[in-house]
Amino acid sequence: MPKVFIMGGMGHIGGVILDLLTRSHPEVEVRVLARDQDKADKVTSKYPRAQCVIGDFASLDLIEMTCRGADIVINAGPDITHDDTLKAVLQGLQHREGGSGAKKPYLIHTSGAEQLVSMLDTAVHRVTAKLVLSAAPQVKVAILAPAGVKGISPSVCHPLPITMPAILQCVRAFKSPFMICEGENAVGMIHVLDLARMYTVLVDDNAYYFGSATDTPYRRDWMAGLAPLLEKHGVVESGCTVKSVTAAEVARRVLFGDDYDPDAPPPPLDSWATHITHGLGANLRVRGSKMRKLGWEPEHLSYFETMDEVIPAYLEREKETAAK
Ligand SMILES: NC(=O)c1ccc[n+]([C@@H]2O[C@H](COP(=O)([O-])OP(=O)(O)OC[C@H]3O[C@@H](n4cnc5c(N)ncnc54)[C@H](OP(=O)(O)O)[C@@H]3O)[C@@H](O)[C@H]2O)c1
Fold it and tell me: Hey, which residues does 31 pair with through a beta bridge?
């Protein structure tokens, strides 16, 4: 019976992988890294066949030991700045139970398409990606680099896209939809359910796979398309036009929202605020064509239909959190 260890299995992406694996592969033994008992209980009450290992990305010995007993490790947690965690994963996979007679272990690693497209060593995700690739050929590795991820996930902890809080915080602070400069950048998008199906068809060694289903319109048309939904759900007043702003203004509003101080220092380069601002202002035109060659096809295409579900779900969760 294949043993799969999922890291980040409670996340927006990892939660669907867990859901899909337990439903479509009942023969698989699944272990999930959970940061605390409460999260572990949520996972096992929804997926009684899953086992949880309590720890985080700093629990290097635990991660190495768990990987020693796994056939496949799926990392759907954060990748950058966690190189020691990945070294523990690779150490565990390279010294698996059963020694050299055991079947070749497999690591499916989630990266990010931002700044990776150039494959330059200075690109944010590239350092970690090179570390993962260095484990081949002893370990079979695949790197999946999603573009923008949309849609509602069955995750027990993070059902909504990771980008929602930053985007809505900026929309509220600007009191309108916004674009960086003229919004002439486009970003590929993929529904989280389509993305999860990519993990199940990954078979090649030592390769990058971009996770994208569509090349979306320019950001200015994307924000213009979002405007009626933002109005419909009461995030902005009616009649708003798309505001042109600078990247620095967006980065500061991701951090401070309405409390905008133009003299505040810009957020650090390796911060989430800078990362998401880059994603909102840069081109990210990837198509997932390599996955299509493996037989994968997206099923969920309309971004705006997805957002008509996601925005009210996000607002509802925000209300619940404020009431606690
Ligand atoms: N979503 C996107 O648009 C996108 C695009 C490109 C790449 N990616 C990559 O995919 C990754 C996952 O994205 P996501 O949207 O699924 O994020 P998410 O919803 O925030 O999920 C992240 C998961 O990782 C876990 N985690 C975070 N830090 C951890 C730590 N120090 N120790 C143990 N677990 C930790 C979280 O655990 P808790 O549940 O305990 O918080 C959660 O289960 C991202 O970090 C990024 O590298 C995402």
Answer: 5, 51
- Enter the pTM of the model: 0.86
Which residue of 13, 56, 57 sits with most ligand 1 atoms within 8 Å of its CB, as the best mutation to test the pocket? 13
Asked whether the beta carbons of 94 and 135 are under 8 A apart, the reply is yes
Tell the residue nearest (CA) to atom 33 of ligand 1: 56
| Predicted confidence pLDDT, tens digits, the chain (324 residues) | 789 999 999 999 999 999 998 988 888 899 999 999 999 999 999 999 999 999 999 999 999 999 999 999 999 998 877 889 999 999 999 988 766 556 789 999 998 876 555 566 666 677 788 888 888 888 888 888 898 899 999 999 999 999 999 999 999 999 999 999 999 988 888 999 999 988 877 744 446 677 777 766 788 888 999 999 999 999 999 999 999 999 988 988 888 887 777 787 778 877 888 888 988 888 877 778 888 888 888 888 778 888 999 999 999 999 999 888
CA distance 251 to 248: 5
Task: Say yes or no: CB of residue 143 within 6 Å of ligand 1.
Answer: no
Structure tokens at 251: 């980065």
> Ligand 1: which residue has its CA nearest to atom 45?
78
Q: Domains plus CATH for the chain?
A: 3-146 (3.40.50.720), 164-187+216-284+300-318 (no CATH)
